[in-house]
Amino acid sequence: MPKPVTVTRRTTLAAISATAAVAAFPGLAEGKTEVFRHGVASGDPDATSVVLWTRVTVPAPLEVDWELASDPSFARVLRQGRVTAGPERDFTIKVLAEGLEPGGRYFYRFRAAGAMSPIGQTRTLPVGRVERLGIALASCSNFAFGYFNAYDAIARDADVDFVLHTGDYIYEYGPDGWGGDISRRIGRVHEPANEIVTLFDYRTRHAQYKTDAGSQAMHAAKPLLACWDDHESANNPWTGGAQNHQPDKEGNWVDRRAASIQAYFEWMPVREPGPGRTRMQFWRTWVFGDLVTLSTLETRHTARARQIDYDPYCKTINSHAAAREMERDTFGAVGRTMLARELEADLTAAWTQSKLANQPWRLIGNPMPIARTRVPDVVGLGLIPDPASQTKPLSAAVDMAWKGKWNLPFYPDTWDGYEWARQRLYSQARDAGVGDLVFLTGDSHSFWANRLADAEGRPMGLELGTSGITSPGDFIESGFDPVTAAKLDAAFADHNPEVVWTDNLHQGYVRVILTRDEGRASFIAISNILSQRYTAHNISDWRLVRNDGVLDLIRT
Question: Which of 67, 101, 118 is at the close of a domain?
Fold first, then answer.
């Protein structure tokens, strides 16, 4: 295990300060505004091209030059061009650098208004024989809860080639929403000062998030593979609305969703949709030679049925039989969808091609947990006091005690609330000849190492889940002390056959390294997010191996 490294400032990549200015922009000339305040980023690569991104902080349309080179000194510039940044895209720039070599490593930069951007590094996807791939799995970066130190650690991680972000890249809450108290204490209050609803709001929030030093370091150092979850738009959206969208106060959901998606495509290094596709159909497949196929899911806007709320059942469920009946009639209801039919078709095509290429690994970028996760009888096990015996019990304790009494799923808004859709996905994979998927999952703010099975108990692969970059685990955030939280982690693993190990206590990321023979997963925790001083260390390491064709996890 590597020794923790103390980090006090960003040093991963040298950035060239924007010091020059032009007379047309007095603020720049006076040094009051940096031209490239939001850094640079790259992402969504294929074998011969990659998206390059930046944003210029200027008050009027401006020409921006870009260069891509094979060396950091730019002695050999391979591609270059000029584009115009304007208000129609919030002064963001996205360039598709094409005609590159497969598996190539490149450097890029932008120039505008006499200033130069930081230098970014990127790469294209490899083709042919590939021996190794390193991926950092990241999710749930809430600006209000702290500094994105895990991003900074990813930037420094020499074993990481690409970053997979499975969503909740931004959060929509206002200053008085989730994390508000902490944000005021550490000076990271959300902007604008309201829950974001309009295009201006979403643009402003994305801009704020990209001022974080750790975020800028990661984006400059590694290309991004992205999918979204719910908070890029609102909490728990489905095709017809969202949990915290109020039409009478916040207008039409369709308009709000469109604004969030437009801002996302402006501010993220992602490709525009291909012919016949819309921006809402945001899923991808990346092929890493003969080693790995990685496909991401869109689980919010194109097909998702409305989430089931437990509230109506709290007074009606009075037996385990009633609980199972509720699950069967709701979570397992036939036709209760999660994935669009077009996405399902693309997954089948990707898996079929992967099998034909004899790839050993098929990954799924998964916005939310898929392993079956029921709540143990936490009161009966003596893990928490019976809320009925307390004058002012924690609301989380009341909720957990009720779910545990009836052995109900912990998260009804995850795949556990869509049993029919989960089984449909597993059946689709089996029909394609793949029962060895590796789901790389975010959303829950917890680390997970899970063995997956379908409804008949047949192995379906593994799930590696990451905690939040800053978003806290449910147990700690709900008021349980660390000792109780650790006991709850152990109880969830003991109670659920699919859960091998979980950790609800830490923030961080997962490093996944895949070779032809096996995989390795390292769960990396960040010691501190309330300042930019932190250490990063492994809290758990696992091997991904095949036993008689079945994927398994072995702790090291």
Answer: 118
Q: What tens digit of pLDDT does each residue of 423-459 get?
A: 999 999 999 999 999 999 999 999 999 999 999 999 9
Q: CA-CA distance, 84 to 370, in Å (whole number)?
A: 43
67 and 82 both lie in a single domain: yes
DSSP letter assigned to residue 409: B
Question: Collapsing DSSP states into helix, strand and coil, what is residue 28?
Answer: helix
Instruction: Report the C-alpha gap between 52 and 330 in whole angstroms.
Output: 44
What confidence tens digit (pLDDT) does each residue in 277-327 have? 999 999 999 999 999 999 999 999 999 999 999 999 998 999 999 999 999
Looking at the structure, tell me whether residues 158 and 193 fall in a common domain: yes
Q: Can you read off the two tokens belonging to residue 332? A: 């397992």
Whether residues 80 and 132 share a domain: the answer is no
Strands 120-123 and 132-138, bridge-based pairing: unpaired
Question: Cβ(291)–Cβ(135) under 8 Å?
Answer: no
Task: Characterize 212-250 residue by residue with b for buried, 16 or more Cβ atoms within 10 angstroms of its Cβ, and e for exposed.
Answer: bbbbbbbbbbbbbbbbbbbbbbbbbbbbebbebbeeeeb
400 in a structural domain: no
| 370 and 339 in a common domain | yes
What lies within 8 Å, CB to CB, of 422 at 6+ separation is: 338, 370, 415
Asked if residue 397 belongs to a domain, the reply is no
Distance CA 358, CA 196 (A): 46
Q: What is the pLDDT of residues 99-155, one digit of tens each?
A: 999 999 999 999 999 999 999 999 999 999 999 999 999 999 999 999 999 999 999
Q: Which is nearest to 110 in space by CA: 155, 76, 62?
A: 62
One-letter identity of residue 27: G
Q: Is residue 274 part of a domain?
A: no
Which pTM does this prediction carry? 0.94
Question: Domain holding 187: CATH number?
Answer: 3.60.21.70
Domain boundary among 70, 96, 118: 118
Which residue range is the domain that position 63 belongs to?
Answer: 17-118
Confirm if 364 and 285 have CB atoms less than 8 A apart: no
Per-residue confidence at 549, pLDDT binned at 50, 70, 90?
Answer: confident
Q: Identify the bridge partners of residue 111 per DSSP, sorted by sequence position.
A: 65, 116
Total tally of structural domains belonging to the chain: 2
